[in-house]
């Protein structure tokens, strides 16, 4: 080669390289006829929301390349669709190219022009002369004939017909009954591998349609059938301000879909690799996807957990029970919490005579699995009953549609499975029973009617007498305005009376006890009746005249908490009803006295057991695991199921009270905060809580949310397992706190060394212990976004599926001095009295 030719060649090579780089940076038009999309080029929607191109999964060193669609306007990198998920491009010598053939077929080819993916199952044909490809603003990649472009929806092929793991607004989750196209979500194998994983979520149309989540071919969760308002078992599916939803079922297709109320809001439904369907909503403030709802949401959502004719209630412990008039098939197994045998009728059916059978109504339930069902949309409920009664293999019937008084007929021809109690949103179902059971039920109703008539008559007589007393009572009240209120009466009592300038908020209607009644119940606040003392003040045991035991929390004039905390506790807990929350019976506000009256907990608080070697022996592992699950269910109620979203902010062992059956009750709502349905957290300058339980973002920056409570719950679980306090924890080998110690043991595969000495490995269910530790470490991760929500925690504790690997916990760094708190230089006195674990308030200038 001549010396002159070398510079020329180098020059041409440089020009070619520059042109190549410019070409790779080009974003193709959203509509293209001669499509040739190379690795490095992208196609963007006209509104800039979605982008199509080649990618490698984030957080991986893999060289595999995939063609996909992801969000561009927000959360760049959140992939919503993958074309070649099971056939990645592994050719390291050159990138792939997406092409559109003359027949309207999309193909992916590698550097050797070998096709490794195509849309060959499209409806393309030889008569298509002008195919075009377009990425719609909805995120749908479509192929259509340019001559039919005006029709909009006459697509030759569309990506919406072949979902990956994500359902977007406008997509259909279901089946076209004419073409046979079935649209279902299929999980990724892992976070960095988009190939098909273990879980699928779609509409099962083998009976009356219902959404079903499968692991392989095994049912994991079922939505229940559509009832005109929602899928009967989907508690979280209800009208909201973010999206609308709809269900279509006709001779052509059956599908579920949703649309956004506001186009500026982004929401998506994802089938994740852990077997949970999650709805995410984009939060513009935090620049993160926020989990809006999960399915399955709790243990009762686990498919068939109580088996045939069993009914699940998340409010009960254990959750499974038999339907009324049914008994366990094996009482011995049932007593061991083995529900696999299910339940059977107390009185067996006799099909020889039609009159020997009838139907019993069960209300407020999630309808059973409908895959062995028959339906007719035009029948009335009476016609439905007649059809079912004539066929002895028909086990039950119900309305299909509950709107406008009910319509349609749904029949079951097999054992009824996957029933759960839903008192507020459930449906009625009529189950075939022996006539003797119906007679018993009818007799009981007849007796109740007779008793009702007698009661009504007595009530009328009493009413006449009371009418005469009303005027006298009115005069009496006028003359005795200052008379003390009788216990149990409800009165609007102004908190402005007898108060300084602590607060100037609205009056509250409080359940009131008079001071004399409380003084008498507590033996005039005797020191012998004192149970302990906390930040609010002393707590006394009391016994009312009728023998009811109570706990009286009396506000001390020296208390660091005041009238605001008093009011806050009443506001938060007054109308909350859950078996794992302490019950507020009333208040006393008289003169300088401010008191809260609670149900008495004879076993006092959890910390008195788990942090004491002697008392700890009384709590075996089954009891500790029940306590963990009970606290989790209580928090789930506060965070998701109560009328207001409540963040406790001071969850700790001393605030978990134990009743006579060792059922845990979350208490002390003095510093709790309530939020609206769509609010998730806030920022405060007044940080309140207890050292050792506060999450990093709350302790340092005053940012609190439901994830703050979840951090505290994780700490609590580790304390229950280990019998050690997180605050003040000491280990001779290092200066880590309990969280750091647990994390170190987990990484080294030595988590069982964390078990409390009084328990011993032999008396524990090691799988439950390891799972509890694993879940706890997921809860105490440094970043709030990494922590699961409470519905996921309840589900993880009650199932056996794979768990995500936790990241490093918050406050993991070693302390300078073992005896000092891990993020505060101030020390806290440790005492044996549970209520002396003082709640700390940190004022921080912001």
What does this structure look like?
The model is unreliable at 1-26, 481-507 and 815-846 (pLDDT under 50). The termini are far apart. The strands form 15 sheets. Strands 1-4-5-6-7 form a five-stranded mixed beta sheet, with no helix packed on it. The relative contact order is 0.06. It folds into five domains: 28-162, Agglutinin, subunit A (Orthogonal Prism), CATH 2.90.10; 165-297, no CATH class; 301-441, no CATH class; 486-600, Phosphorylase Kinase, domain 1, CATH 3.30.200.20; 603-846, Orthogonal Bundle (Transferase(Phosphotransferase), domain 1). The protein contains 14 helices and 50 strands. It is globular. The protein has 846 residues and is an alpha+beta fold. A hairpin with a 5-residue loop joins strand 23 and strand 24 (277-283).
Fill in the keyword field for this structure.
single chain, 846 residues, alpha+beta, Agglutinin, subunit A, five-stranded mixed beta sheet, five-stranded antiparallel beta sheet, 22% helix, globular, disordered N terminus
Instruction: Give a quick account of the main beta sheet: strands, pairing sense, barrel closure.
Output: 5 strands, mixed
Which fold does the CATH topology of the largest domain refer to? Transferase(Phosphotransferase), domain 1
- DSSP helix count? 14
Named CATH architecture of the largest domain: Orthogonal Bundle
Concise description?
The protein is globular, with a radius of gyration of 32 Å.
